[in-house]
Amino acid sequence: MFAAEVALGLSTQWLGHAHLHHARIGSTNDDAAAWARDGAPHGALVTADAQDAGRGRFGRVWHSPAGAHVYASVVLRPEIADGRWAALGLAVGVGLREGLLRWCDGIGLKWPNDLVVGGRKLAGILCEARWIGSAPQIVVGFGINVKSVGWPEELRASAVALGDLGVDVSPSAVLIAVLDALEPVLDAFATDGFAAVRASYEPACISLGREVVVSRPGGESTRVFAEALDHDGALLVRGEGGLVRVDAGELAPG
Ligand code: BTN
After folding, report:
1. Ligand 1 binding pocket, CB closer than 6 Å
2. pLDDT value for 214
3. Rounded Cα distance, 191 and 125, in Å
4. 132: which strand partners?
5. pLDDT per residue as tens digits for the range 101-120
6. Bridge-based pairing state of the strands 19-25 and 45-51
7. φ, ψ for residue 85 (rounded to 5)?
8. DSSP symbol at 77
């Protein structure tokens, strides 16, 4: 049913045509990575109604109740693997946002790639890569909160679903819209890297021009001013030591 609805609704050329849907799975990212190892084509899509081991960035749990939200992972097999792919998550954020704007126009991008509305998280993106010789296999996973089904206490203040904003839409309709919007963004990004999405990313980015606290993957946190984005999507922050690049991390309001 879900897979048939997606197949009927999609207008993409290559994204999501090979599609595995599960009623329940550990993590769609793990399943997509296993499928990639077994030869999944560029653009292959894995979705699930529920995840038992949905993962977020920094090893966090991604809340994945049945039938409520979008849980999706896409396999990408870029021809050229170079530094530009570090900004893939930013490009995916642009694509998801464009797909969701028809239902909600107040969506911001929190650097690097969270979609937020009113300070609460609407969608998250998890990009994972592995190399087979010089050929990268990338899995882009995203979760989009769709139905208003309530939040566990620990997420109540920080998460939001389209349904919480008064939008009544199905997860399959949301998935179709974001895949349709994402495909041209990924095509442009594969050619020109972050430069291809910069003009869309910057005005939507809620992190720029603000005091923020940067938490780096190692655990260290610093209060800085988020000044600009570098040519490749890294965040340029000004702190006591002057202007510094942040390649990866997470931001909180400063
Ligand atoms: C984050 O914001 O921390 C990233 C969240 C990514 C969640 C999605 S849900 C589908 C895919 N499968 C996973 O296990 N994680 C991603």
Report:
1. 27-29, 51, 54-57, 60, 62, 71-73, 114, 124-126, 141-143
2. 92
3. 21
4. 135
5. 999 999 999 999 999 999 99
6. parallel
7. -70, -15
8. -
